[in-house]
User: Fold these one by one.
Assistant:
Number 1:
Amino acid sequence: MTSDNTTPPEDFDVPDATETEKPRFDPFEPEGVRLQKVLAAAGVASRRVSEQYIVEGRVRVNGTVVRELGRRIDPENDLVEVNNVPVQLDTTKRYVVLNKPVGVVSTMADERGRADLTQYTEGYEERLFNVGRLDAETSGLLILTNDGDLAHMLAHPSFGVLKTYIAKVSGRVTAQDISTLTRGIELEDGVIAADKARLLAGQSTGDSSLVELTLHSGKNRIVRRMLAAIGHPVLELVRRQFGPVSLGTLRPGQTRELTKVELGELLTISREVTKLDKAERDAEKAVARAAAESDSSE
């Protein structure tokens, strides 16, 4: 084993010289990257402040608190958290929030020549793509990224990421209508229920009402179809929230980077989903092995 002239901590197990197998990655080997340097490169804090975080026990690597300033990590494989919030160590990943205006289609190249999303991505060096879609008549929050794994998790309805919409609809919406939305509505492609629904106070007149709807379904034009089914067709529709990311005061056509907190919350969801997927796969393998052993013993 090579040495960087530093003495390993007393609780670090030094391999016996006779061992023929070397660990895949040694956290104190010089080929690793110092943890405080990785944190600074990821934009968490300056290197000096990152060192303070480490000493204070606010940093975890693969779920374990790290306090040693000499600790080196493998940025491509290790998972790092600061204050229990995951950190994206891959600095090539970009995450952008767009308030998509009405009249823009959710694609990077529209074959019919309509206004598309390229006008909002051409200023970035990375090749960004949209997470999910909003129809041309709907405005609001779209996430643009080059992180394919996170995009897949966010867009797939089976992962249950909630989206919140505000709809201006025709007619006066009643409490019974709101109850119907949350109980479930029979549509041509099955029953669908909103996770949450409420009538915005003071916004209902004889001609129109404002309804806030939260759901995890990703079916095509689902909000418009649900509201039309209860007799209140949509006049205007905006998506205000996607998971933990909120539109805030972002004006139509404007973009902004995700905050570290927003990205950390999205990564938390992604890692939890990954754990669940792994647990399900392991359970399926265990069942398959048990079945195979049972067959071979007969």
Note: The chain has seven helices and 17 strands.
Number 2:
Amino acid sequence: MVSHTHISHPIVKRGDGNPNVAVLALTADRGMAGAYTSSIIRETEDLLARLENDGKKPQLFVYGRRGVSYYHYRNRPLEQSWEGDTEKPGVEVADAISRALLDAYMKPSDKGGVSELYIVYTEFINMVVQKVRVLRMLPVEVIEEDKSHLNVPDTTTAPDVRPLYSFEPSLDEVLNTVLPRYVRSRIHECLFEAAASEVACRQNAMHTATENARDLINDLTRKLNASRQASITQELTEIIGSADALNKRKSRNAKWLRTRLQRLLMRPRSQSSVM
């Protein structure tokens, strides 16, 4: 519809030369999710660097306690942040984020408004694969459909042939109502994708940690059994050695006693004893 009409709504077209852009990073509230938050932060840092190299001034918005703590620790200013329920984001969070971003987008440039909106989030593909994506949410990009492979006559060269659209009550009122809801639904969709990815990453991390802990327990059990067996063997060796030593000592004592008795028996009697 936008490609076939003369719509100049700010959400669709924004060409005022404003260098300010907004970047929203969707991170997690809790850890133990592997590289989930670190991947988002790394991609966000790369995006901020690219925007700054292009001469733009990014404004950072962050959702998730881990991301907020990361940037606060590094004294990075945040335009706005939200925390809580990253694993199960509700409509209230989506409304708050979309309202703040739309307000920043609709403001004029001299009042700190932005001309573009980027969202960095994790796309959920399956329980094993999650991919970090950078989505330019605003302005809405119009992609022309490629009809070269279809047997459709080309009507773009005919300036008088255009689809006819009727808006009631008016075009501005319809767009002011529909497009913000569209943006809010897309942001809510990104929140759901990020929540599903966070849960999958945390389950994978916990599964890996459980396997590593089980392997560590088995290894330590084998080492404990080997150490205990060595200790038992050493104790048995000492006991047997002590018993042999006692037997040898008893044998020497018995031999000494026999020799002593023999000497006593073989000694001649004295005169006094004879008389």
Note: The mean pLDDT is 82.
Number 3:
Amino acid sequence: MAVLSLAILAFQSEDPARAGQDDAPGKQGASASGDKGQSSAKDVDTEHLFGFTEGADAGEKGEQEVVLDTISRFGKRAAGPGGSRYRVLDTKLGYQFNPIDKLSIELGAFGNLRTSRNIVGLDDKSYGTFDGISVEVKYQFLKGSAEQPLGLAVELRPRFSRVLPIEGNGADIFDMESVLQLDVQIVPNKLWYGGNLSFEPAAGRQLGNGPGYRSSTLLWSNALVARIGENTYLGPELRYLRGYAGTFLNKLESEALFLGPALHHRFTEKTWLTVAYAGQVRGRDTGPDLTGRRLGLDQFERQNLRVKFGMEF
């Protein structure tokens, strides 16, 4: 509630004296200032603005970017008495470039660091390893602005992974996430909405003589971000996820609702930082041994934290 209040106050606040100057006839300086504010609204890059949710902006021809993106996942159901721990850090180092306007391509390499102890259905383990590569291709159909507030893009994210995402066992996994991304300038230069709809099927096999692996995930995320400073943006983010056995949403295993704040700050015109936290506030598992238990912890975690740093050149 505190984050939402900050978002509302940020776009409602206005200097009355300044407003009077803008309305006064012959005040060319105030008019020029208004034009400048309108122009800066167009310059806000929404791609990394919303935390876990991705904005629709894709950039212009010739732009390049290096991104370090870490998503930490904490907390699962304990298998018994005594201390338990589940902690996974998924880190991606990505290089993004734009061969033409509105089309971006990102090449990524992943690392995985995890600790699991006394967790239901999981073996105890602690290690770090290289976890595969990815290619992300994004095309922007609409660019949001003060005059036309809707931004719309589609992104495809094929990825090869070497580790099962929950269990942590060695495997050869291929997944293909498809994401519909949109954003809206609700109040020009002050308040933005971002939304994603994602489908991610995955298939492969565990190493050695391990069993085959088939899963799919459906995601719907929403974020509302306000400008609270010249280069700082803050607001709440809500995500709903459903995890399935089978590559085409065959059998529901878990569902979870996450809520938390998202912060974006630009240090310079070319460097930025995004930090987002999400705690699971509601969920369920469908397994017979887990029916009626609080939260969806079979396929998801209690808490997620994302820290993303980027440099454009």
Note: The longest strand covers residues 125-142.
